[in-house]
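Escalated from tier 1: 2-phosphoglycolic acid holo job.
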Amino acid sequence: METDQNKVYIVGNWKMNPATEDDADTLFDEVENDVYKLTGDAVEVVVCPPCLFLPQFDPEGKVRLGAQNVFWEERGAYTGEVSVEMLRRFGVKYVIVGHSERRCNLGETDEMVNFKVRACLAGRVRPILCVGETLEDRQGGHADEVIVGQLDNALRELSESEIAGKLIIAYEPVWAIGSGAVPTTDEVMGVGLLIKKVLSRIFLSRQIADEVPLLYGGSVNPQNCRDLVEKTGMNGLLVGTASLKAGDFMGIVKEFGK
Ligand code: PGA
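Tier 2 regenerated the structure:
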């Protein structure tokens, strides 16, 4: 099993950006050049570009490649979809699964998220499973219930040995994404503890609950990033907007690795 405990994961989710392959190259190169200057491997830096740009980037470099989505079948009549194996052949090591933009805008259900998580684990790429409540859930006092439900459904039919050293969970409150609003560090810590409790219950193991890396995502920037890890017990961050400027992204990375 990999030892994830002391690593900080900084994952950039470029979403549907930038507009051209040249801009993608420039952004990736700027990040990679700076990551090469870091000594040690306290930080695992992951970049998730639109999958069309993946072949441009060095899969063996210090910046790990991630994808923003995947389909669960291996091949066949699934128009528009891409399989785990197709991604893996371009060096993809991580896949974001169940991002709220896919759940809310594209109708991705808990069942689909479960199929995707299982396909990633079976195909030896690490799923970054996103969970989080909407503003409506939060205002209605249902946030915890929503998060627990998303976890229970996404992790159906999986065993401890299947997720060990592979699964990553990202807590991304929907209302914090791209809004500039962030929960308090106490709130993030509370959700982290809730996720661990659910993992212990599902897998009947305290150990696995402590080993699955937990990320926070939603309006992370170079100013708030340190507290969102150090004061919350999180193991890293999922970064959207700030990952589109190399200076901002590396400002975050450098808070955790010199
Ligand atoms: P944001 O996006 O950093 O722009 O809030 C985070 C995400 O959607 O993963």
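The first strand starts at residue 8 and ends at 13.
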